[in-house]
Amino acid sequence: MGKIVVITGGGRGIGAATAKLFARNGFAVCVNYKSDAVSANEVARAIVAEGGTCLAVQADISEEAGVLELFSTVDRELGRLTVLVNNAAILKPQTRVEHLTAERIENIFKTNVFGSFLCCREAVKRMSRRHGGAGGVIVNVSSAAARTGSPNEYVDYAASKGALDTLTRGLALEVADEGIRVNGVRPGFIHTEMHADGGEPDRIARLAARIPLKRGGEPSEVAEAIYWLASEKSSYSTGNFLDLAGGL
Predict the structure, then answer these.
(1) Which of 6, 25, 45, 218 has the greatest number of C-beta atoms within 10 Å?
(2) Which of 33, 154, 157, 227 is catalytic?
(3) How far apart are CA 209 and CA 76, in angstroms?
(4) How many angstroms separate the Cα of 241 from the Cα of each of 73, 106, 192?
């Protein structure tokens, strides 16, 4: 049976690097995206040009209907899921908690938490031996912010990633004897477009001196960690986290 990976938010940054790495290792790849079709299709074309298989699927994972459509499309076009990488997440402009609106908090949690829960649910239905599956792996892309709290900037985002860490640990224990491993990665300051989403494109340059390694990370470095957790080389790891924050 072929290896199939779904990567949410796979059109840019960490997601795009992860999609290309999995493809180079023989996976058929589903690149999920919400709105940036140009970037997602560029990733898919690059993978196909190198002889791989890639499907770009538009779906808003913050909505249950979008998640159901995403997974049914993969079932139909690629086959039974092997690996899920929950990478999709949103970030809003930097602010303090006292200025947060209910709408903003809800939007953050709908994508970063609810969406990941729903994707995990659908993956378990397909992977679990209880449901006739052959097992599989889930890797959740969290953040070092889950540990630091990101005060004065993104406490709502940090809290959403803390919830994702709890999901990772709880689900790992729940499905360990059903052939599914669940782990997480916690990137720190990585060179992606997400900093611009938060209103400060050069944020890493401002904060680099605080990082023990004195630099930001590259998406490819996070992708390597994700792939390792999805591979048989980490076959005895579940419910664990890899921190990729340059020593923070």
Answers:
(1) 6
(2) 157
(3) 49
(4) 30, 26, 21
